[in-house]
Design brief:
This protein is α+β, with helices and mostly antiparallel strands and 247 residues long. 22% of the residues lie in helices and 36% in strands. The strands form five sheets. It has a five-stranded mixed beta sheet. A four-stranded mixed beta sheet has the order 1-9-8-5. It starts with a helix and ends in a 23-residue tail after the last helix. 14% of the residues are buried.
């Protein structure tokens, strides 16, 4: 009788230990699931047109290691970037939704990221006109193409604003010749971007200014400030250095 009770006690103890072990594993899995569920991808439900980073660990102090998968590797490919994953974005012919899945063990969560279409507006949005909103005193060169995501768009330059034509002229499509006035003048130049048969014109503004020498700059400063002063020059005397003066 005693042996049966002892055997029963041993069996119950073993079952309790197994239950605790299973519970510990379940609790660990639940923790991962909670961390995964709380994670928010900044690019979720947004339109992307360039690469972005994905974490390898999340949660407090990076306690949970995660992996990522993409539903469309032609649009977004997941690459190992060292400390983080890199989502390599390839623009498509049209806007393309891609599901990115984060996982830790059996816990998973999906995000939807929309990959932008490569079109003429893409090139305009990523182009920088170096002279925009600056003051120009000399002629400058123009670029006739721009590249993005391994593709190129052409740029044709012109001046359509009548007021600007008195101060700037596009020569051979590759250079801007300026004719400055005494005062600073705002002008506008047009850039016609063409890609895959589609064309869109974007205007840029800058200022044309004469190139003043230092004396003219001082006179201009005082004249604009309404000071009754005009500086016409400086007088500099040079003396021969003599040891008799102790210098």
């Amino acid at each position: 009788m005693k042996s049966k009770k002892r055997l029963t006690l041993i069996v119950l103890t073993i079952m309790a230990m197994i239950a605790c072990l299973i519970g510990a594993v379940a609790c660990g899995g639940g923790k991962d699931a909670d961390v995964i569920d709380m994670y928010i991808l900044p690019q979720n439900e947004t339109l992307v047109d360039s690469d972005f980073s994905l974490p390898k660990t999340i949660g407090a102090d990076g306690a949970v290691a995660v992996t990522w998968t993409s539903s469309n590797t032609d649009a977004i490919a997941i690459e190992d970037g060292g400390e983080e994953y890199t989502a390599k974005v390839t623009l498509q012919a049209e806007v393309t939704p891609v599901t990115l899945t984060i996982a830790a063990g059996k816990a998973k969560k999906d995000f939807t990221v929309r990959v932008d279409a490569l079109n003429v507006f893409t090139f305009i949005n990523h182009f920088t006109f170096a002279q925009e909103k600056t003051s120009v005193t000399k002629d400058f060169d123009l670029v006739t193409s721009t590249s993005f995501a391994g593709q190129s768009a052409t740029i044709a330059w012109s001046v359509s604003d009548d007021a600007s034509k008195s101060y700037i002229e596009v020569q051979n499509g590759t250079k801007v010749h300026i004719t400055p006035d005494y005062d600073l003048v705002d002008v506008k130049i047009d850039a016609k971007f063409t890609y895959n048969g589609d064309s869109v014109t974007q205007s840029y503004t800058f200022s044309v200014s004469p190139e003043f020498d230092p004396l003219q700059k001082v006179n201009r400063m005082y004249s604009q400030a309404d000071y009754p002063l005009e500086i016409s020059g400086y007088i500099v005397h040079a003396y021969e250095v003599s040891e008799s003066y102790g210098n």
